[in-house]
Design brief:
This protein is an alpha+beta fold. The protein is built from five helices and nine strands; from the N terminus they run αααααβββββββββ. It has a six-stranded antiparallel β-sheet with strand order 1-2-3-9-4-7, with no helix packed on it. It has a three-stranded antiparallel β-sheet with strand order 6-5-8, with no helix packed on it. The longest helix is centred in the first third of the chain and has 11 residues.
C-alpha cells in the first residue's frame, strides 16, 4: 500500500508545510518529503507519531471504510430526560472525531431548553418553524421562522418558545 499520498493529503488538510509537520513530529523535512513520495517506509512508531500530529491513528488511516455521508431521518437518535415540551433529536450519530453536533430541537408553546453554563465552542440555530427567544447571559433575543442566530457558548444560555405554536430549530454546536 502506498501511504505517501494519503499522508500528504492529511498534511495539506491541516495546513502544514512539510517543515511544520517535520518539526511537530521531531523528524527531518527530507524524511517527510521521502515519506510522501513513498521513497521510505516508516517504522510503526514513526508512522503513529506522524498520524497523531495529523489528527488520526493507525486504525482510521488504514480503514477502507468510506466515511458516512448521508444520515437518514429514521437514524436520528432522540435525547432523553429533557424538560417537558422539549424534544431533541441528534442528527448525526456514530461519528468519531466530529467537530460539530447537529440537532433538531422542537419546543412546545411555553417550554424551554435547560439552561447551559459556560462551555467551549459556538452555537448556531436556524428557526424552521415558529419563533424562539434566545437568552444569553440574561439578555433576551427573538428569532422568528427563517431567522438564524449565532453566539459563542462562553455564556449562560437557553432557548424558550414564547409562541402559541410549536417551534422547530436546527441547532448546530461546535465541539
Amino acid at each position: 500500500m502506498k501511504i505517501g499520498s494519503k499522508i500528504k493529503r492529511l498534511r495539506l488538510a491541516r495546513g502544514y508545510t512539510q517543515e511544520e509537520l517535520a518539526d511537530r513530529c521531531d523528524l527531518s523535512r527530507s524524511f517527510i518529503s521521502q515519506l510522501e513520495s513513498d521513497k521510505v517506509s516508516p517504522s510503526v512508531e514513526t508512522l503513529e507519531r506522524v498520524l497523531r500530529v495529523l489528527g488520526t491513528d493507525l486504525k482510521h488511516f488504514f480503514s477502507d471504510e468510506q466515511k458516512k455521508i448521508i444520515f437518514k431521518k429514521n437514524e436520528r437518535v432522540p435525547m432523553y430526560e429533557l424538560p417537558k415540551g422539549v424534544k431533541i433529536d441528534i442528527l448525526m450519530d456514530g461519528i468519531e472525531d466530529k467537530e460539530i453536533d447537529a440537532k433538531i430541537v422542537e419546543l412546545e408553546p411555553g417550554s424551554q431548553t435547560e439552561q447551559e453554563d459556560y462551555h467551549d465552542g459556538d452555537e448556531f440555530g436556524y428557526v424552521i418553524e415558529g419563533s424562539v427567544e434566545i437568552y444569553i447571559d440574561g439578555k433576551k433575543y427573538r428569532a422568528n421562522e427563517g431567522d438564524c442566530f449565532y453566539y459563542s457558548a462562553d455564556c449562560i444560555h437557553y432557548l424558550r418558545n414564547p409562541g402559541k405554536e410549536k417551534a422547530k430549530i436546527l441547532w448546530i454546536q461546535t465541539i
